[in-house]
Write a structure and sequence with these properties.
One of its GO terms (molecular function) is delta(3)-delta(2)-enoyl-CoA isomerase activity. This is Enoyl-CoA hydratase/isomerase family protein. Pfam families: ECH_1. Keywords: Isomerase, Peroxisome. It comes from Mycobacterium yunnanensis. It contains ten helices and ten strands. By secondary structure, it is of the alpha/beta class. It has one domain: Alpha-Beta Complex (2-enoyl-CoA Hydratase, Chain A, domain 1). The strands form two sheets. The protein has a six-stranded mixed sheet with strand order 1-2-3-5-7-10, with helices on both faces. A hairpin with a 2-residue loop joins strand 1 and strand 2. Helix 2 crosses helix 10. The radius of gyration is 17 Å and the shape is globular. 42% of the residues are buried. The model has no long low-confidence stretch (mean pLDDT 95).
Amino acid sequence: MLVEIEDDRGVRTLTLNRPEALNAFNEALYDATTVALREADEDPSVAVVLLTGSGRAFSAGNDLVEMQARITDPEFQSGQYGFPGMIETLTALRKPLILAVNGLGVGIGATILGYADLVFMSTAARLKCPFTSLGVAPEAASSYLLPQLVGRQNAAWMLLSSEWVDAAEAQRMGFVWKVCEPDDLLPDARRHAEVLASRPISSLIAVKQTMVEPTRGEITAAAAREYAQFAELLGGVANADALASFANRQESK
């Protein structure tokens, strides 16, 4: 099962379950996550959604093998929802979303934090927005959400440098709310989720609606700009070289 689902006290925990690939998002995982998020949002017994990863990673981002196949394989099949569907679902999510970042978060494994209402991060976790190292543009409306969350210069460093950011730095920036020791991460995230879940769901939805509705149009516009830039750069020289280098490293393992 690509996304494990557990319900407890009004909290639905969704666990990305592709540990052999460090929970990298292929089309199947994008689809499974989108469906799980939509079902949680529509389920009247669910008050809060908690998203985490299995194994040693939160998510290694886009599956680069599939990214290369998208360029080179004329028969490549996109998923039913894919990346755009998941981003649209995150943008429209009515219920509080809590992330428990248990390990490395790369690409969408980092930019998804922009859609969370609360982020908990393990001291063992690290984040990276690797777009310039892959020769592509930002994604997931991160060009809008990151400056809003962490300020222009912190966002510029993350998006331009493709460098790692550790948990302490992510908290200093305001990218995460609480940093926890690895064994405390899920219990602490769940404890806070249960506090929220003890409140009326209608009120939780109303609070989130009033907070995020002013940004939804901006998120959609930013995502459209990013898609256009990404499409222009995907398969270009810098991107092709980066993907070939990745493929060579995989073959040599």
